[in-house]
Amino acid sequence: MASTHPESGTRSRRRSKSFSNTKPPHITETPLKWTNWYQFVDWLSVFFILIVPLMGFVAASFHPLQRATAIFAIVYYFNTGLGITAGYHRLWAHCSYRASTPLRIYLAAVGVGAVQGSIRWWSRGHRAHHRYTDTEKDPYSVRKGFWYSHLGWMVMKQNPKKIGRADITDLNEDPIVIFQHRHYIKAVLFMGLVFPTLVCGIGWGDWMGGFIYAGIVRATFVQQATFCVNSLAHWLGDQPFDDRNSPRDHVITALVTLGEGYHNFHHEFPSDYRNAIEWWQYDPTKWAIWTWKKLGLASELKEFRQNEIEKGRLQQEQKKLDVQRSKLDWGTPLSQLPVITWDDFKIQSATGDGRALVAIAGVVYDVASFINEHPGGKAFISSAIGKDATATFNGGVYQHSNAAHNLLSTMRVGVLYGGGEVEVWKRAYSEQQSRFIAQDDKS
Questions:
Q1: pLDDT in tens, 207-251
Q2: What is the DSSP letter of 364?
Q3: Which spans are transmembrane here (predicted)?
C-alpha cells in the first residue's frame, strides 16, 4: 500500500540509496569454506611471487648461466637489496639519515627493481609493523605463524581496515616517492626485468640469461631475503635488548638480509641508521650509508646515545639474571620468619631437640646439619650454639666468604626481637642507668 505521508516517499528513496551504497563485507570477514577459498588468495601476488619465480627456475634449467651474467646478477642483487635495506627501510620508513637527491633517485630506482611494491606502500606497512608488533594490527605478525609472516601475508588477502594506522605524511610530500608510486608498474617491469635483460644482452649478447638470471632469479632471491626479516628475524636468535616482543638478533639472518638480522636492536632503536653496532657484526647496509656520508651523498646519520643502548642491554641482562635467581634457594624470606625474643632463643637453644641455634646479625639459624661439614671443624661452630656469633662470623674469628653467607641464608629459622647480646646489654644498661646515677649522687 502506498504511503500518503508527503515525505515518506523521500525517506524511502533515501533508505534505498543508503542501502545500495553499503559496501559488502571484506572477504576476510566471511567464513572460509571449500567453495570460496580461492577468493581469499591474492592471485596477482601469487603470480609474481610464486608462479613467475617457478617459471624462471624452470627456464634456467634449459639455459646455461654465463660467467658475466652471473657476476652482473650478483652485483645487481646487492644494489637492489640496498634499495630495500638502505632506501625503503632505513631512509624512507625510519628516516634514519638524510640522502641527497641523486642518492634518493638511485635508491628509488634499484629499490623498485627488487619487486616488492612502491616505497609508499612498503613503508606504510613497515611503520604499522613497528607500531603494532606481534598484534592483530601487525600486517605480518609472526604470532600468526612463521610462514604467514614470511609469505602468507603477501599471497593471502588482508583486510586493510584491520592493519594498524601509520602516519605517512612525509612520504606523501616526497616527490620521488609519489612519482615512483604513481608509475610503479612501468618502473618495476623496467628495473626488474627489462634493465637487466638489456645490460646482459647489449653487454655480451646473453639476452635470455639476463632476463632469467639477472631478472627473475635475482628478484626472487632479493624477495626471499627481505621476507626473512619478517619471519626469520622474529624467530631465530637472541634478545639482548628486550624480550617482550619477538624480534631477535642472529648472524645468519644478517648474512641473508644485508645486515638486517640484528632485529632486536633495530626494534628497540628503530631510528638508528645501524642495525649492527659492533665493528665485527655484518651490516653492509650500515657500511654503505657511512660511505655515502664520506662521499657527501648522505648526512645526519642518526645514532641512539650509547648510554641508552647500554641501559637497555643491562636491563635485559638483569631480567635474565632475575629469572635464574628465582630458580635458586635463597632461604626463607625474613618477612616470613617467626619473631623470637632473646630469652626464647636462649631457652630453645638449650632444649636439646636436635637443633643447633645460632644468632648472627639479628637472625636465628639452625646449623645442626652443617656442624660436621664445617670446613673449620665442628668445635668452632659448636662453641657458637646458643650465642650471638655476629662478630665471630664477620671477622672476629674468621671473615666468612660470600658462599658461606649464601649457604647460611638457607638455614634461617627466625628473627630476633631486640637483637642479640649487644642489644640486650644496651637495653639493660638503659633501664638501670638512672639507678647508677642515683648511687653516684649519694656517694
A1: 999 999 999 999 999 999 999 999 999 999 999 999 999 999 999
A2: E
A3: 43-62, 69-91, 103-122, 187-205
Which of helix, strand or coil describes residue 205? coil
Place of cell 502506498: 2
Contact predicate 220/88, CB 8 Å: no
CB 241 within 8 A of CB 264: yes
Kindly state the cell numbers that stand for 20: 545500495
The cell for 116 is 616488492
> Cβ atoms within 10 A of the Cβ of 234, count?
28
pLDDT tens per residue across span 359-383: 998 999 999 999 988 888 888 888 8
**Distance separating alpha carbons of residues 20 and 375, to the nearest angstrom:** 90
| Domain at 334-441, CATH from 3.10.120.10, 3.40.50.970, 3.30.1370.60, 3.40.30.10 | 3.10.120.10
Structure pTM?
Answer: 0.78
Written as one letter, the residue type at 272 is D
**Strand partners for 375:** none
Annotated domain spans of the chain: 27-316, 334-441
